[in-house]
Amino acid sequence: MSSRNILVTHALPYANGPLHIGHLLGYLQCDIWVRARRMAGDQVVFVSADDAHGTPIMLAAEKAGLAPEEFIRGIQASHERDFADFGVVYDNYYTTHSEENRELASLIYTRLRDAGHIEKRLIRQLYDPVKQMFLPDRYIKGTCPNCGTPDQYGDNCENCGATYAPTDLIDPHSVVSGATPELRDSEHYFFKVGDFTTLLRGWLAGKLTNSKPVVHSSVAAKLKEWLDAEGGVRDWDISRDAPYFGFPIPDAPGKFFYVWLDAPVGYLASFRNWCTRTGTDFDAWLAPNSAAEMHHFIGKDIVNFHGLFWPAMLHGAKLRTPTALHVNGYLTVDGAKMSKSRGTFVMARTYLDAGLDADYLRYYFATILGPAPVDVDLDLKAFEERVNSHLVGKWVNIASRTAGFVHRHFGGRLATALPADEAARYADAAHRLAHCAALFDAGEFAAATREIMTVADEANAYVAANAPWNLAKDESKLAQLHTVCTLALNYFRLLSAYLAPIVPATATRALALFNETPARFDAAAQPLLGAAINEFSALAARVDAKKIETMIEASKESLAPSASAGAGAKPSTPNPPLEREGSSKSTRSSGAAVSPQPSALGPALVSIDDFARLDLRIGKVVACEFVDGSDKLLRFELDAGELGKRQIFSGIRAAYAEPSRLVGRNVVFIANLAPRKMRFGVSEGMILSAGTGDADLFLLDADQGARPGAQVK
After folding, report:
1. Average pLDDT, the chain
2. CA torsion through residues 105, 106, 109, 115, sign
3. How far is Cα 626 from Cα 614, in angstroms, rounded to an integer?
């Protein structure tokens, strides 16, 4: 197969806060893909940049007493440090506040304007008379016009889930100054995305990419919903009024490009900067008929920008459209949204400072990532067990049990040949792992890691069956010992090559045993024979649970209100990590699902969208019994109607001394909770109960008329 030329980017981190582990989900997925394509022999240019414009950055810089340019430099330095320490390596890391980006954004805009795809329109919006600026929706708060809840944003209510215009708020105030905003007219510039509806339908159908899907089918279906909406895709407001930190719109005094217009252009600006440094032909890669590919890795919250606006902008400006969008879901931790109160809103740097290995998080994510944009859970106990079992107990264990014999008995050299059976074993393993290159390409990371660990299991079984520690005691069996250790170490070398995209730092140390570096997958297709190897040294330590505890404790933050906050005080300038202007629940690029802050008077408020994520069902108990070896659990078997049978382990044993009496009852359970593997079996949901715990727990009931599998609404 001929080599492919591929330009790869990921969603740009916003330059107003540090990276957290939710962001890393998509960034690490992208880096693994890039490394795998290079090891498959492709030519990949991997670029990114800090997204450095918008109202939030302008206000955050002002609050910090810095010029915006100085403020974003400090944030970018912290981002680059975190990326490097997590093994994310770019050909070029840049900033959207660059001359290249200004030129490209202006070029794309003027081409769209001259082709009739830009329209000027007078709009009315709220204006802060104190700060003398028009206010984005998220910088206005007031009382919800639907349910009467105070302190709600200007675009949606986090209590009842209602969406509305900021002008609908009751008693609105500016989040920036606290002043009552005024309605004023302003001329804005709109991009007529609907002009490209036919183009977008063809692009989604693969007509521009040789019939290859450009995005997962579930994302394509969502994009088609927007295309099929009554009235079509709405025109997109691409302008903002001064004061604004961004690029001025050509021939439009006092108007600036909205941050979401020049942010994706930042991909091309970073690439152009790299092209200038390396003498590469930028235009050849970006021409509409280019044979090169362009892949974007993004979160599911920004598919509208990348799946509608971006390809339309590119096509309208006579540039090539993306080859593919790789979309990831949100990250939860221990089955729940990231939470500062529980210590699970973890910054990337906090993870590292706790002494946890970056490769371990990369590996855990790889074991659960597929091409579908589903939410992913970082189960901290499973993280510990998986790393300890897979990386230490399976992979590294192969070398640690055999390398020493090669140095003690054979002068540090592998055997010069393998018997036919061993050679066939290796050839079979190499053939099966060769399929992993295609799995990586398709985003099937979890499937690839399963295949890799299957081969690791075979290697360990081979070592255990031949017991080199026993062979070493018998002089007559040294030739067999040499064979066993040579095959085992070649297994280790082969596995290291295929793990290299996932755990690059550890794999580099592993392959140094053979005086090799990660290069190409097929470099390990043939066994290494007769070669001198270095002495083995420890490659990976087991995860220390205390380090996870340290990370959690370091991430906890008191949510009690400040003692200095007066009863009528207005909120300070919002500065959520990496949240762009205009972001809301549906347009965050954080990669993590974030809980709303609880009020001082009660538990955290949730929106109707949060509640809708839970699939609550009625289950009829068909079996219930004690669990041997546990003094807390009961094992339930539920009839869940159309969902079939469900096994659920519930920690309510202290409350129900005779579990058989629960048979026949209706219970309420969460049906879309990720299955959890326990030493007693797999638990496929959570049964709801009320009480304080132990004996004070009572199962929720439902009238007998409720059918098994019925949804709770």
Report:
1. 90
2. negative
3. 28
**Are residues 12 and 72 in contact, defined by beta-carbon separation less than 8 angstroms?**
no
Measured distance CA(174)–CA(91) in Å, rounded: 42
Please classify residue 110 by burial: count the beta carbons closer than 10 Å to its beta carbon, then call 0-12 exposed, 13-18 middle and 19+ buried: middle
The string of pLDDT tens digits covering residues 312-329 is 999 999 999 999 999 999
SS3 sequence of 251-300: CCCCEEECHHHHHHHHHHHHHHHHHHHHCCCHHHHHCCCCCCEEEEEEEH
3-state DSSP assignment of residue 501 = coil
Q: Predicted confidence band at 676 (pLDDT cuts at 50, 70, 90)?
A: confident
What is 348-407 written as a DSSP string? HHHHHHTT--HHHHHHHHHHH--SS---EEE-HHHHHHHIIIIIIIIIIHHHHTTHHHHH
- The dihedral over CA atoms of 269, 274, 277, 279, expressed in degrees to the nearest 10, equals -100
Strands 666-670 and 686-687: antiparallel
pLDDT level of residue 255 (50, 70, 90 thresholds): very high
Kindly calculate the radius of gyration of the chain based on its CA atoms and give it in whole angstroms.
29
The 8-class DSSP code of residue 182 comes to E
At 664 the pLDDT is 87
Rounded CA-CA distance 587/581 in Å is: 10
86-139, pLDDT tens digit by residue?
Answer: 999 999 999 999 999 999 999 999 999 999 999 999 999 999 999 999 998 889
Residue with tokens 């690839």: 448
Strands 255-257 and 689-693: unpaired
Report whether pLDDT(26) > 70.
Answer: yes
Whether a cis peptide bond, with omega within 30° of 0, leads into 129 is no
β pairing state of 666-670 and 616-626: antiparallel
Predicted confidence at residue 164, as pLDDT, reads 86
For the chain, helix, strand, coil in percent to 5 are 40, 20, 40
**Residues whose CB is less than 8 angstroms from the CB of residue 228 and which lie 6 or more positions away in sequence, other chains included:** none
SS3 644: coil
What residues contact 626, with CB distance under 8 A and at least 6 apart? 634, 635, 653, 659
Nearest to 30 by CA among 53, 13, 16, 17: 13
- 312: Cα within 13 Å, side-chain hemisphere: 27
| Contact present, 56 and 260 (Cβ < 8 Å) | no
For residue 577, give the nearest of 562, 590, 592 by alpha carbon.
590
Candidates 626, 694, 619; CA nearest to 658 is 626
CA-wise closest residue to 582 among 254, 252, 314, 263: 263
Bridge-based pairing of strands 376-378 and 331-333 is parallel
C-alpha dist (Å) from residue 552 to 10, 81, 418 = 28, 22, 49
Residue 694 structure tokens: 């132990």
The residues pairing with 141 across neighbouring beta strands, listed in sequence order, are 153, 173
Alpha helices in 536-579 (DSSP H): 545-555
Can you name the residues that pair with 676 across neighbouring β-strands? 683
Backbone torsions φ then ψ of 222, nearest 5 degrees? -65, -40
Q: How far apart are CA 546 and CA 15, in angstroms?
A: 32
Please give the model's pTM, rounded to 2 decimal places.
0.79
Tokens of 198: 């036919």
Binning pLDDT at 50, 70 and 90, where does residue 227 land?
very high
Q: How far apart are CA 19 and CA 81, in angstroms?
A: 10
Q: Which of 536, 482, 483 is nearest to 511 (CA)?
A: 536
In the chain, the largest separation of any two C-alpha atoms, in whole Å, equals: 94
Cβ atoms of residues 297 and 44 within 8 Å: no
The angle, 0 to 180 degrees and rounded to 10, between the axes of the packed helices 21-39 and 358-368 is 80
Give the start-end residues of each E strand in 415-454. none
